[in-house]
Amino acid sequence: MSQTIVIDAGHGGSDSGALGNGLREKDLTLTIALGVANFLRQTGADIRLIRSTDTTLSLTQRTAFANSIGADYYLSIHINAGGGTGFESYLWSGPVDSTTTRVRDAIHQKTAAYFASFGLRDRGKKTADFHVLRESKMPACLLECGFIDNATDATRLKNSSFLEGLAKAIGQGVATGLGLTVAPGEPAQISKYFVDVVKGMEHAVPHIDSLFEKGIILGDGKGHFLPKNTVDRLTLAVVVDRAIEYILSQINK
Ligand SMILES: [Zn+2]
Fold first, then answer.
1. Pick from 111, 179, 184, 245: most CB atoms within 10 A?
2. What SS3 state is found at 71?
3. Do 246 and 214 touch, CB atoms closer than 8 A?
4. Are residues 153 and 36 in the same domain?
């Protein structure tokens, strides 16, 4: 029987949550929650979002929903504020069962490692008497994913590929903790040269392969094109100059 996982994007609607550096907590939690849901759907689990749009919901409405459907797990996603940096996770400060601890440990491990890969600190595994942790009748965990009012954290939180990776890390933690496996069949390579140019990128493939053949864009040298990476000015200079060289070499033939 498939497990039912409730994903709660903190705040929403008239409740913006924390604000800082031009960001609103309610927008970030929704983006991350949608990403976690997408990832976990690959496991075949029954994924329910507390909200999938910018709507107002009380804490009681949130936990009442999860309790009414008899969910197996409750994951609440928030962004921190108040002068700090990094990631922390919460369990209820009252008694919790071993599943609660095991799943939180798995989520924390994956997510803290992801933050660490960006030089952002692990603030640790904590407990608190939060409504969603206390009133949900199933194992539950709440994540505080960086500080919206910290410039370093906010720089990451503004980056959509950071949020995508974060959602995946959280999803992997939930899957590991609950013993779920992602269905086999990774997206198939469709480029002649790059393993990470996959289904869904058809429109770009002829251009990517052609630029590789002309020696203009070469990837990381290990068969990866890194399609989601942004281009910095150093890379731009190299690519533009290679393109000019290539054009000149064709003219001079
Ligand atoms: Zn919050």
1. 111
2. coil
3. yes
4. yes
Report the C-alpha gap between 131 and 166 in whole angstroms: 24
Ligand 1 geometric centre to CA of 78 (Å): 4
Diameter over CA atoms, the chain: 78
Whether 8 and 77 have beta carbons less than 8 Å apart is answered as yes
Phi (first) and psi of residue 15, to 5 degrees: -105, 100
Q: How far is CA 169 from CA 128, 139, 163, 175, in A?
A: 23, 19, 10, 10
Residues in the chain: 253
- What is the distance between the alpha carbons of residues 96 and 127, in angstroms, rounded to a whole number? 10
User: Does the residue 194 lie in any domain?
Assistant: no
Ligand 1 mean position, distance from CA 96 (Å) = 22
Residues with CB under 5 A from ligand 1 (ion): 10, 17, 78
Catalytic residues: 144
Distance 44 CA to ligand 1 centre (A): 29
pLDDT score of 187: 56
Is residue 70 included in any domain, yes or no?
A: yes
* 119 and 234 inside one domain: no
CA of 119 to the centre of ligand 1 (A): 23
pTM for the model stands at 0.74
Q: How many whole angstroms from 126 Cα to the centroid of ligand 1?
A: 15
Domain that holds residue 222: 202-251
Residues 216 and 167 in one domain: no
DSSP assignment of 191-215 = SSS-TT-BTT-GGGHHHHHHHHHTT
Task: Give tens-digit pLDDT for 96-142.
Answer: 999 999 999 999 999 999 999 999 999 999 999 999 999 999 999 99
Burial class (CB in 10 A: 0-12, 13-18, 19+), 118: middle
